[in-house]
Amino acid sequence: MLVAAAVCPCPPLLVPEVAAGAAPELDAARAACSDALGVLAAARPDLLVVVGTAEPGGRGPFPQGTPGTFRGFGVDVDVRLGPVTGAAPERELPVSLAVGAWLLERTGWADAPVEGLGVADTLEPERCAETGRELAGRAGRVALLVMGDASACRTLKAPGYLDERAAPFDAEAARALGAADVAALRALDPVLARELKAAGRAPWQILAGAAHDTHLTGTLLYEDAPYGVGYLVATWS
Fold it and tell me: In this model, does residue 12 exceed pLDDT 80?
């Protein structure tokens, strides 16, 4: 059963070495992510699953100990999704899960075994719900670290340019995540999310599936759009 969840953004810029001189601009987001992980630890889960979107080569399950890297962003920073417990996995984490692994290392996560799951940002809502239910059934007490950004179309300089639909979409996502509103998350339009480059839609709907009938309560810890991209941090417990 799902006992807790943390929702965090997944830009590589969260890693200070990647952000370089702009690193202080996301200090508040990093602090909120650390607080969110504290909620996961307090829930005493038997298993933590990190969920994020990925390109085709990075989809599917990732066992504990899977390596990730930010060398593709020009920095010598490597991470692992928890300690290696057997043969070292060969496949590398997709970026969203690597950011999650970095957050876990940064906070010294040692509270439960950890695994990863990379999914397509086009995953249908029904399949998201099914995936969430499957994850919730993996252990007696399951926690999710849900990695995903809101729209990337909030300003003229945003990656997706300015789209007037972006701010209302992000506001509804923030409200739903802050209220643990499962129905509202399920109702997010995957076509609109895709047009707004909101990579968090599928992971959020997986969370909604996992939280079905759990009656968890939510708290929104952070909401901003630096660089024209919506970043949200929330906890469910």
Answer: yes
Sign of the CA dihedral with 110 first, then 111, 112, and 118 last: negative
Residue of 128, 140, 134 lying closest to 208 (CA atoms): 128
Question: What is the Cα Rg of the chain in Å?
Answer: 16
Contact (CB, 8 A) for 161 and 195: no
pLDDT tens for each residue of 37-85: 999 999 999 999 999 999 999 999 999 999 999 999 999 999 999 998 8
Q: Could you give the CA distance from residue 68 to residue 80 in angstroms, rounded to a whole number?
A: 6
pTM of the complete model:
0.96
d(CA 168, CA 80) in angstroms, rounded, equals 36
CB 52, CB 118: distance < 8 Å: yes
| Axis crossing angle, helix 201-210 with helix 125-136, rounded to the nearest 10 | 50
Residue pair 56/105 in contact (Cβ under 8 Å)? The answer is no
- Tokens at 73, concatenated: 């962003």
pLDDT band at 187 (very low <50, low <70, confident <90, very high): very high
Do residues 75 and 23 touch, judged by C-beta distance below 8 A? no
Q: Which residue has the higher pLDDT, 226 or 150?
A: 150
Q: How far apart are CA 193 and CA 116, in angstroms?
A: 23
